[in-house]
Amino acid sequence: MTDSFKTFMTAALMGTAMTLAACGGGSGGEGSSSSERTQYEVEGDHAIGNADAKVTVVEYASVTCAHCATWHKTVWPQMRKDYVDTGKVRFVYREFPTSPVRLAETGFMIARCADEDKYFANIALQYERQEALINSARNGTAKQAYTELARTAGLSEDEFETCLANEAEYEAMQDVIKGGFERGVQATPTFIVNGEIKKVYKIEDFDEVFAPFIDVPTREAADADAAEE
């Protein structure tokens, strides 16, 4: 392990913060990298949904971004129900760490090292625990908090340490971040729909952007159905 990588790992669990991108540009389910990809995906992407869908949504997000957490807890469940589970939309999640960057990177490494079919569940858990995890860095208990997070993801303490020493996985994540910058991503969450960055956040925003490609639900009717359930 290189000295620079050791420094990163030490900083990660000591709560060192570094700004990489801004959080704010406007509960996940299980998914995995697929051997079948849409034209908007790249090798190694974490995706969920129909690979033959007419719409592919790529989200660049951070597990330490409050806006991302809000979106995943309030908008994503409806979007998944209406679009992903129905086969209309393919959803891709790409890592784009925001401050505290070291904590975001550590969380992403855990999700990467755990079983691939649990990647989305691990990301969702980090959004649920986001405030507690960030506070752990402030009160000096980050190591314990992230060790417990890794354990919940199915990694033993030894496997967690091995994960943090996985330079190949870390470099793969850096490639994702670089790709985001190259595509014009500057904040999180950023959504790219069929290859174009769109200013969307609410479910109604996605309805409007999806409409030229697929049938979208009448939101009043959808709300009525939800009330009946």
Distance between the termini: 54 Å
What overall geometry do the principal axes of the alpha carbons give? globular
Given the structure, what is the number of helices? 11
Overall average residue pLDDT: 86
- Return the domain count: 1
The major β-sheet equals: 5 strands, mixed
Descriptive report:
- The chain has 229 residues and is α/β, with parallel strands linked by helices.
- It has one domain: 3-Layer(aba) Sandwich (Glutaredoxin).
- It is 50% helix and 12% strand.
- The protein contains 11 helices and 7 strands.
- It has helices at 3-14, 66-74, 76-84, 101-113, 119-128, 130-138, 142-152, 157-164, 167-182, 203-210, 219-228; strands at residues 22-23, 46-48, 55-61, 89-95, 187-188, 190-193, 196-198.
- A 5-stranded mixed β-sheet has the order 2-4-3-6-7, covered by helices on one side. Strands 1-5 form a two-stranded parallel ribbon.
- Helix 1 (3-14) packs across helix 4, helix 4 runs antiparallel to helix 5 (119-128) and helix 6 runs antiparallel to helix 7.
- The longest helix is centred in the last third of the chain and has 16 residues, at 167-182.
- It is globular and about 50 Å long.
- Residues 1-8, 15-20 and 26-34 have low confidence and may be disordered.
Task: Give short descriptive properties of this protein.
two-stranded parallel sheet, single chain, alpha/beta, globular, 11 helices, Glutaredoxin, disordered N terminus, 229 residues, 5-stranded mixed β-sheet
